[in-house]
């Protein structure tokens, strides 16, 4: 996923997304730079990538938003279900940092109109 700064500079970062109809759900740190950039500029681009983040498809324009805290657990559970083999690490990481709701936020990405 690529987010954009206020002045339009691209900032790519690898994410783990979970399809949800025509949307993509992502769990991330609430204080991350990508979350801050999405709050300022919801425009993003998305591309499939390999394990190390190397793009494997063309980018698609999208619009992202930070979901309300009440949605965090649902998104977190969806990500854990999809990436179950990383679940123990995800869970421990969340607990050590203060708990799922304290540390994480859910993101929703929709195709741009």
Automatic annotation (TrEMBL):
Entry protein name: PPOX class F420-dependent oxidoreductase
Transmembrane intervals: none
NCBIfam families linked: Rv2061_F420 (TIGR03666)
GO cellular component: cytosol
Key words of the record: Oxidoreductase
Pfam family, one: PNPOx_N
PANTHER family given in the database record: HEME OXYGENASE HI_0854-RELATED, PYRIDOXAMINE 5'-PHOSPHATE OXIDASE FAMILY PROTEIN
InterPro entries (UniProt xref): F420H2_bilvrd_red/Heme_oxyg (IPR052019), PPOX_F420-dep_Rv2061_put (IPR019965), Pyridox_Oxase_N (IPR011576), Split_barrel_FMN-bd (IPR012349)
Domain Pyridoxamine 5'-phosphate oxidase N-terminal, chain residue ranges per copy: 1-83
Organism this protein belongs to: Mycobacterium montefiorense
Molecular function, one GO term: coenzyme F420 binding
Domain of life according to the entry: Bacteria
SUPFAM superfamilies: FMN-binding split barrel
